[in-house]
Amino acid sequence: MRVGILNSFKRQFSTSRCLSSVKPQICIVGAGPAGFYAAQHIVKHIPDAQVDIYERLPVPFGLVRFGVAPDHPEVKNVIHTFTKTAEQKNVRFLGNINLGTDVSVKELQNAYHSVLLTYGADENRRLNIPGENLDNVLSARNVVGWYNGTPWDKNLKIDLSGDTAAIIGQGNVAMDVARILLTPIDELKSTDITQYALEQIAASRIKMVHLIGRRGPLQAAFTIKELREMLKLNGLNTSFNRDDFFGIDKLVHSLPRPKKRITELMLNSIDVKKPGATKDFVLNFLRSPVEFLPKAGQSERSQVGCVKLAINILRGEDYTKEVAIATSQIETLDCDLAITSIGYKSVQADNEIPFDQKKGVVINSNYKVVDNFYASGWLATGPTGVILTTMSNAFATADVMTKEINSAIDKLPLKPGFEVIEHALKARNVQMVTWKDWEKIDEYEQQEGKKVGKPREKIVDIQEMLKIAA
User: Which pTM value belongs to this model?
Assistant: First the structure.
């Protein structure tokens, strides 16, 4: 059926266009930072190109909307740049379209001169240790989605009635989750955090959060900005184990400046205590989880009660390449909530996508998958870096694309672009969400937010989004 619709429409289309004026038709799948930055670069370097951005959700912006912590509104300012790109006359946003179900890669390749996949990484990596399926052992991806309004995380079963949380991982996402759990509720009320998360955090009894990393302080992945925020948080003590820093003071002078600054900050903060602090944040280095255990007296299918940690030593001469080796020493850390934050991975949205299942990325060489087919962002590189990293990556990918299109601009075959895809989607009863439709959702969310003193109150139900869009 899909091939019949496409071939029929292409025959109609080929007689209605002048062969001497072929407009480059470019498709981007994924309306997050990578997709928008790529679109920005493409329209700048191929001004007459038509760029269509497909997104599976009815709303744009990807991780900027659903991944950036609610207390980091400044990071979301890139939305203004993305909006300018989306409002250009030769850029089209198309929401609520799922690659692999509503439309196939093959259909997009037949309709467009160039197809770029930027749909990100939205599946969490697992530790694969005993007890990982206990209640209240959650992934950071789901917790972030819960407080940021990702539709499929709105009903996350998270129990905040205990006093201790253990977070496995020491990247910025782990830091974000820890900070949200420990931030005074009055400081969260004016953010765009979801109302249901705000209410649960307001009733939370979490008083201590452990951040656990398998390597040492020199290998910690969080940034100095994230650490400073924790050190400055009202009513919070941040603690370090002095033994984890043995010998590091002798290495500080030889470290690169960014690493030197964050290491000095940790060394200078080891013995700092805040008078009157009621909550604690503890950084545990050189520890690897080996098993989650249920609360005493409960079955193994019940709620988590503690995590067993192997104590590690580091091997290697270069601190950037040191490997954590588990010793026979084991310690047990009591916890009422455990959150794993060891990275995300992408999924193969369509069987036509060459995919490395082990790494969770699209197989590519310099962002190119095959001729006229590309991947960028976390889908191509794995989940590394921050939004600026994604911007550089997207620009580099778009540069490869634009150079190849411009070099063949006089030989481009006629392609129907969105017209044939629209015809197919209507035949499949798929409700498409345009940029003007998104603006209705955006206005509604902002108006709802004003009622409670927030920048917006996010809609977390897809059907409600579609109802407002329609």
Answer: 0.91
